[in-house]
Write a structure and sequence with these properties.
It is a single chain. The protein has 187 residues and is an alpha+beta fold. The protein has three domains: 32 residues, no CATH class; 71 residues, no CATH class; 73 residues, no CATH class. It has three helices and eleven strands. Strands 6, 7, 8, 9 and 10 form a five-stranded antiparallel beta sheet that branches. It has a two-stranded antiparallel sheet with strand order 1-4. α1 packs antiparallel against α2 and α1 packs parallel to α3. The model has no long low-confidence stretch (mean pLDDT 92). The chain binds zinc ion. The site of zinc ion has 7 residues, from loops.
């Protein structure tokens, strides 16, 4: 049988793979360990998934208008990919005084303007998940699965696997042309 290669999961130990659990007011009958997905990542899968997410992320310095940035879901928001409208010049975020400081320290940051929302006080090395094309998704998944193949059950790099590039190193050396969604990009 030729199973497609994928990030490793196992049957959810809480709900036994039904996706449901005893009723509670906040979640209904949905299992909140697997969020109704019936499976959870193994420890090896967790590492490979983190690697994949880093491959699919960029620092604020690398993010441009027209890209899509992932807004993490919160308690009151659904989250999802949002269009980048712009990144502000460095500006004052606020003044802070901590511990035994006698002087106020001014902190600076950037705002990331997304369609319908603004994320404030970010640094240029803040990392955000960005929208990928089908090509970009396939290539990043392939690299993450190559990484997963070299991991032990507990998620550390196998001793006989030699060295393997970090996600950052992969991004620095891979041909990433055509990986990112860039709306209205001028060539
Ligand atoms: Zn579950």
């Amino acid at each position: 049988m030729n199973q497609p290669r994928r990030i490793e999961t196992k049957t959810c130990p809480r709900c036994g793979g039904s996706g449901e659990y005893s009723y509670c007011q906040a979640y209904g009958t949905r299992c909140f360990k697997c969020h109704g997905r019936k499976v959870v990542l193994t420890r090896r899968g967790e590492q490979a998934n983190a690697y994949l997410i880093r491959l699919r992320s960029r620092t604020l310095a690398e993010i441009r208008p027209g890209m899509l940035v992932f807004d993490e879901p919160g308690p009151f928001t659904k989250g999802g990919f949002k269009l980048v409208l712009g990144i502000s010049e460095l500006k004052e975020v606020g003044k802070f005084k901590s511990g035994g400081d006698t002087e106020w320290t001014t902190r600076y940051g950037h705002d990331l303007d997304l369609e319908g929302m603004r994320l404030g006080g970010l640094n240029m090395d803040t990392v955000k998940r960005v929208g990928h094309t089908a090509l970009g998704k396939a290539e990043t998944l392939r690299l993450a699965l190559d990484f997963q193949d070299r991991l032990t059950k507990t998620g550390s790099l196998r001793k006989d696997a030699g060295t393997f590039p970090t996600a950052e190193e992969q991004l620095a050396t891979a041909d990433t042309a055509g990986w990112l969604v860039e709306q209205g990009a001028k060539q």
